[in-house]
Amino acid sequence: MGGYRLSSGGSQIDRSRRVRFSFDGRDLGGFAGDTLASALLANEQTLFGRSFKYHRPRGVLSAGAEEPSALVTMRSGARVEPNTKATMVELYDGLEASSQNRWPSLRFDVLSVNSLFSNFLSAGFYYKTFMGPTRKAWMVYEHFIRRAAGLGAGGFQADPDRYEGLHAHCDVLVVGSGPTGLMAARAAAVSGARVILAEEMAQFGGMLPNESETLDGVSAGDWAKATVAELSALDNVTLMPRTSVYGYFDDNVLAAVERVADHMPVPPENTPRQRHWTIRAKQVVIASGAIERPIVFDGNDTPGVMLSDAVRSYALRFGVAAGRKIVVCTNNDRAYHTALQLADRGMTIRAVVDARSTPPQALVEALAARGIEHFPGHVVAKAEGGKALEGVHIAPYDPHTKRLKGASRWITTDALAVSGGWSPAIHLASHASGRPNFRDDIQAFVPGEAEQAWRAAGACNGDFGLAACLAAGAEAGAAAAGDAGFGATALPQPSVEGGEAEDFAVLPLWEVPAIKGRGKKFVDLQHDVTAEDVRLAQREGFQSVEHLKRYTTLGMAADQGKTSNINGLAIMAETRGASIPEVGTTRFRPPYNPVSLGAIAGREIGAHFRPVRLTPMHDWHVAQGADMLAAGAWLRPRVYRQPGESVTDAYIRETRAVRDSVGIVDVSTLGKIDVQGPDAAEFLNRVYSNGFAKLPVGKARYGLMLREDGIVYDDGTTWRLSETQYLMTTTTANAAGVLTHLEHLLSIVWPELRVQVSSVTEQWAGMAVSGPNARRTLEAAVDDMDLSNEALPFMGVRPGHLGGIPVLIARLSFSGELAYEVYTEANYGLPVWEKVLEAGKSFGIIAYGTEALGALRIEKGHVAGPELDGRTTAADLGLGGMASRKKHYIGCMMLDREGLTDPSRLKLVGLVSLSGESIRPGSQLVEGATMATSGPSLGHVSSTTYSPALEKQVALGLVEGGLERTGHRLYATYPLKGHHVPVEVVEPVFFDKDGSRMHV
Amino acid sequence: MSEMVHALAGHAQPGIFGNLGEAGPAVTLAEVRPAAVLQVGAWPQTRAAVESTLTSFLGLSVPQAFGMSSGDETTTVMTLGPGRYMIVSADAGLREGLKEQLDAEKAAITDLGHARTVLRISGPAATKVLRKGLTLDLDPGAFPERAVAQTAVHHIGTLVHRREAEVFDLFVFRGFALSFWEWLTDASLEYGYRVADPL
């Protein structure tokens, strides 16, 4: 018993192309155009998997994206993909799928024993049992529980396939390509608007191939094909099949996933498996159709119980009968048409069971003419069968009392087609709308008030009839194009003939009473939530929809309750004695269906996760084997290790080499800002806390920049290149922030100043040449410059040439040695660097990295990022003299506020390790000699290094009282690592206090 | 100036890569090495004067609309904002010449010739490649030939200049050039690309 392939029919399959595939290792056959679900049904496979919590056997419920049950694992190895809806998988040759959540096999599953304990495993079971007073139990059991409950398992290997992110723009986006969507796209397209038509399935047309009407004299399916052909010929229309629009975001931005190669074993080379589209649409037409809903009754999860339209789809599109003997169970007219269509194709319809007692006479007669048994005023009260449906018990039903009112009778069947009405697919609309509205006639929610530029039309808007959909689509498409600025063009409506009634009214029927006891009635098939769970939630006080959802997990599975939310709500309403709109509805959030992480990540993976920023000398550093370190986006050489050296060995060697002879370091990453204009001097004087008005041309000055609140923001040297042009340098970290700050000041605060600031960080390569032999090295390298102390004094800046290349040399020192910074245009960076190295060869010049750079500056007590931490004032850093009292500048007004002049503020000091142990940055400074007696924190350590000059472990720190503690012993404590190091407070300048080494 | 080492030197090797259709590679990528990239900023009072100087000196009309450019064989002038222009030229002498024409009282001129790496993508699949990173609408109605926009691709600030329907110049910070190149070539694999010698 079970499904089989009909001898003819199937608008979507190609019977001339056989396709081989495997399910749980069993080799099976299907046709091109099949889905995995249709092919499995055709192979009499009724059992698709085991359920989430109770491991109950489950089949397939639907034929589309709403599928809650038929979840399979696709492929294997690195390409394994769990929880894939068999209804959405297009069959391809060699397809490999397996069932989930069963052990050892699908037919015999050990944990189906869970089902016997279902009375205990009810809503909130885990919380009640393992949390709260017995929380420890959760720690013990969590691992086992998580193994027992669940669906498929992902893999741990990296996915070998490509995923890409793309952007699209259009005037009108039409979501869904059923009758509504096709007409909307046509109407918008004839107006000249740029249209994107997105369809989640492989074929356009939505439900059209299932309809028996003719449109303009051809079958509905053929009309769909012709319309798609017409649209695809238009330049202003983009058709996107296999594209699921999953989210509606602000500013009319929508997100969609295109399954480019999921229907192939392996994507073609350099082609993504999936594309993630960000679509910016001026207007959106949501034509996402409606989802048929099941009826909740005892045993309604038995494999073989399916939605009525799905049974029709399998027959008409795929030529697959869902069973040998089909029973139809309904509360509306449309399921009758399904029964008639199936019967006319030679399938056996055992009975039509209708909860309504007086269905339309024409339908009753049509059944009679085909000899189909008819049970008006009856419901299916129980489905029986383990792994496959064996039969149903039907019973007379009183819709007023909502009770069964007589004895039940048995009908043998292997497929039950259920129709409980339709729920408009309002998911996307609900991402961008107010509260959905409930409509009594169709007993369903329709989209609420639009909060963005969209309109819903057709079945998605509660208009279910074919003619109604066509008209609504045309109107919505034209209106959307009109709102996007395109004139309306009249579009002739196709003439609809024959076919089915347009009455989609339903008798409210959500849950059928069990014949005996409570029965096993499933509301949410994917999360195994029963009608009893909903009632339990109500009894325990979780009456609000939001609480119901979280307590029972109703609608929280990967299908977001597409087939269960409304039933759960209705049962809650019934239990509370309230109406459905009174109970409310849960709003849907993106994504409409699961989105793979690969699609979201796109190509931003591995080394391409974020771009990196490289200096002009980068390749040289790498070739020399430097350890590269990220500084923001920049990569900087940390140390150039020689064979056998540790990082520490290397930076000590590099530091010594600079102090002993000469070294060169790449400083291209420093922020550089071109400050130009007649008012540039005045501007800088207002921006820096120290004077800049009188800086002569050809000189540089160290400048301190404060925030408006008086705290130090950034520092750096600024060089006056001409009367009206300066080159400002900033710290690497603050380069972009300082530029923004300056632009803000110029455009908002002082728009009258004629000054322009531009980032020239990338225009210049910079290198610092430092050490006693720096001058001799550069003298050997430059062409036309006098570098003597007289010609180029400390802080002097001169242009010149080096090996024929224009350079700018500034005599600046961060290291405390005789030092120069050599700037050249970026594309000359590497040749200049190499020429300096060549010139310094006889002095044993070395390249040094950021570690040695740090060691040299700490030895000199120069502050940097760790000290400019957004909490320190100029005075705290010993730079109080740089905060002018004679002029106005940013930050000056706040300098005298109480908090900034408090004598107990932390102030910069030097620290020397008394034990020879290294001092950890971030250590707290305390007085207590042991960690246990450390006492309160008096400050902290900011920068640390081993000082090769002193041969001691030293640090800079900020401590209460500052230099008043000179000579005192403190402890640098770091309890997390068990460090407690005795240190002596000293002046922050450890080396060459009078600066004689750089003034030579 | 043979000693210059451009950001993609040693990285962008000429050749043909990726998927090739019957028509061969569907895009061509090349580094453009203009002799001058200058940013000119006029003061509010001197905007008209600067535009007229630029017009007569360059022999090009300065676009009045922001985000547009005009150009000839050697030189392009882009209007980036009120009183802000970018001039890209194959004429190395332009820098000094322009500085003589426009002193500080009139405008600020910032040399960005080494600060930017310019990549040209051309061919029938150019917009298909670019939409993998550009959020801009590249429809000719929204972003016509000669249009210019400041945007970002793969977290990298990018100035996009549509020279022709299927020819785009992309200006990025030199330091990001290699990351950008890796993004661009990866995005082009699907359509097949040819790397041409630098222009």
Written account of the structure:
The complex is a heterodimer of chains A (1000) and B (199). Among the domains of chain A are: 163-291 and 424-489, FAD/NAD(P)-binding domain (3-Layer(bba) Sandwich); 618-669 and 763-856, Probable tRNA modification gtpase trme, domain 1 (Gyrase A, domain 2), CATH 3.30.1360.120; 672-759, Alpha-Beta Plaits; 903-1000, Beta Barrel (Elongation Factor Tu (Ef-tu), domain 3), CATH 2.40.30.110. The mean pLDDT of chain A is 93. In chain A, the strands form 14 sheets. In chain A, strands 9, 10, 13, 14, 15, 16 and 31 form a seven-stranded mixed sheet that branches. In chain A, strand 9, helix 4 and strand 10 (195-198) form a beta-alpha-beta unit. Chain A has 1000 residues and is α+β, with helices and mostly antiparallel strands. Chain A is 22% helix and 28% strand. Chain A contains 23 helices and 53 strands. The longest helix of chain B has 12 residues, at 47-58.
Name a few traits of the molecule.
heterodimer, A: 1000 residues, FAD/NAD(P)-binding domain, Gyrase A, domain 2, Alpha-Beta Plaits, 23 helices, 22% helix, B: 199 residues, alpha+beta, 2 domains, 7-stranded mixed β-sheet, 12 strands, 35% strand
Runs of chain A with pLDDT <50, length 5+? none
Largest sheet strand order of chain B: 1-12-2-8-11-10-9
Q: What is the CATH superfamily of the largest domain in chain B?
A: Probable tRNA modification gtpase trme, domain 1
Indicate the overall shape of chain B: globular
